[in-house]
């Protein structure tokens, strides 16, 4: 099945710092095992996008392909006119300067304090003086809420602080694209909520293109402008948040609402006997679409759309109770 893709269009006519990523017919295998094939999507400039999928569907492989760490079997990844799937090593090196990456565990150097960890890319890739480096590092540490923790070692701080330190380091070269590889991995729900708010606030401030790989359904339902879902070796759907949260497509509905009834099973895809056993079971109705998180200062991001706008523009009736300020985030089990 070909993925249904659509961009939000929220940033038309607005000059953004972030850049667009155009993926066409992207296919990746390891040996004879196909990871995903013929992936097509455009990640809009300056917007927050989330990529979801059951475990083992190749979400992290997709991130590595975007930054050129893995070469696809075929297809293209166009960034500012350069196809990083086929470009020279020199061109790839230049394109990578557009990226900042937050790895799953923060990827901190254990023997360096947080200041030196954050400063590392500046010392490696720029000719800035130490005073200039200090100015940049302290600015990014303030953005990440880490002022006062500069001298701490990674082993002396919580997992949440390590994530924020990793994010500060990802921002020091002023990237136009920021990739987040399961930023909520290992975090409790409270710290995940703080991290989600930080992501929203950072996007509002720097207008970079954000792509988040996550399993956290609350994050997917409240943070992004766009959502994508990888399933069964292909991209099932990619488009504006409201498009997917109002979708009746079985795999999208099941995954985004954490339901048991649907094509996804314990081993990714249910077999014929499992589907037969639940054929008379009805999936729960779609839960209300929650409000999207807003920046802490209350000023909407450039790419943020008015609640319900996609549904109105496309003649879709959202689930009852959608877009209410105090609605709960419970999903169907």
Give the key terms.
333 residues; alpha/beta; four-stranded antiparallel beta sheet; 11 helices; globular; disordered C terminus
The termini sit apart by 27 Å
CATH class wording of the domain at 4-98 and 175-241: Alpha Beta
CATH topology of the domain at 4-98 and 175-241: Rossmann fold
Approximately how much beta-strand content do the residues carry?
15-25%
Shape: globular
Overall average pLDDT: 87
Q: Number of helix segments?
A: 11
Brief overview:
This protein has a domain at 4-98 and 175-241: Rossmann fold (3-Layer(aba) Sandwich). Helices cover 31% and strands 20% of the residues. It contains 11 helices and 13 strands.
């Amino acid at each position: 099945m070909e993925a249904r893709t659509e961009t939000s269009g929220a940033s038309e006519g607005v000059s953004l710092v972030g850049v667009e990523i155009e993926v066409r017919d992207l296919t990746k295998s390891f040996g004879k095992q196909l990871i995903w094939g013929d992936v097509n999507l455009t990640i809009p400039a300056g917007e927050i996008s989330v990529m979801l999928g059951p475990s083992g569907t190749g979400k992290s492989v997709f991130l590595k392909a975007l930054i050129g760490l893995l070469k696809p079997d075929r297809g293209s990844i166009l960034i500012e006119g350069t196809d990083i799937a086929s470009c020279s090593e020199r061109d790839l090196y230049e394109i990578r300067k557009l990226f900042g990456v937050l790895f799953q565990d923060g990827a901190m150097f254990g023997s360096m304090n947080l200041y030196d960890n954050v400063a590392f890319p500046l010392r490696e890739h720029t000719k800035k003086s130490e005073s200039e480096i200090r100015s940049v590092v302290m600015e990014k540490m303030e953005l990440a809420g880490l002022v006062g923790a500069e001298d701490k070692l990674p082993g002396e701080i919580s997992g949440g602080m390590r994530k924020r330190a990793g994010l500060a380091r990802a921002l020091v070269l002023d990237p136009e694209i920021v990739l987040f590889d399961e930023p909520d991995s290992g975090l409790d729900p409270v710290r995940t909520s703080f991290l989600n708010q930080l992501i929203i606030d950072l996007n509002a401030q720097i207008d970079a293109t954000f792509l988040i790989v996550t399993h956290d359904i609350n994050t997917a339902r409240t943070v992004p402008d766009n959502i994508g879902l990888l399933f069964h070796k292909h991209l099932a759907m990619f488009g504006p948040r409201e498009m997917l949260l109002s979708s009746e497509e079985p795999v999208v509905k099941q995954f985004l609402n954490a339901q048991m009834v649907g094509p996804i099973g314990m081993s990714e895809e249910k077999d014929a006997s499992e589907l037969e056993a639940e054929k008379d079971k009805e999936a729960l109705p779609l839960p209300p679409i929650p409000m999207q998180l807003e920046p802490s200062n209350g000023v909407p991001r450039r790419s943020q759309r008015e609640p319900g706008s996609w549904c109105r523009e496309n003649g879709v009736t959202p689930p009852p109770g959608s877009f209410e300020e105090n609605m709960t985030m419970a999903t169907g089990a």
